[in-house]
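Q: I have 73 residues here and want to know how they pack in 3D. Can you give me a structure?
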Amino acid sequence: MLLSEGRYAGCHSSCHLGCRFHAIAAPEARELAALEDENMATIEMVYQRLRDDNEIQAHIQQIQAHLWVQVGE
């Protein structure tokens, strides 16, 4: 059974069924999608915790205020 459901079902117009998403079976595709969702949730959680951490934000501001960073921008 080829991939026929999930977020890759539409694929893209230039695919011609040669992309890597059509080469995996539907159960594997669901497992891959679940893993991607879990990873994205972890990334979002870490990002939010970094944004909410005042100590980290103070370090970021200190780095951004450094002369070399300002010259690079």
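Q: Anything worth noting?
A: The helical segments are 26-52, 54-64, 67-72. The chain has one domain: 20-72.
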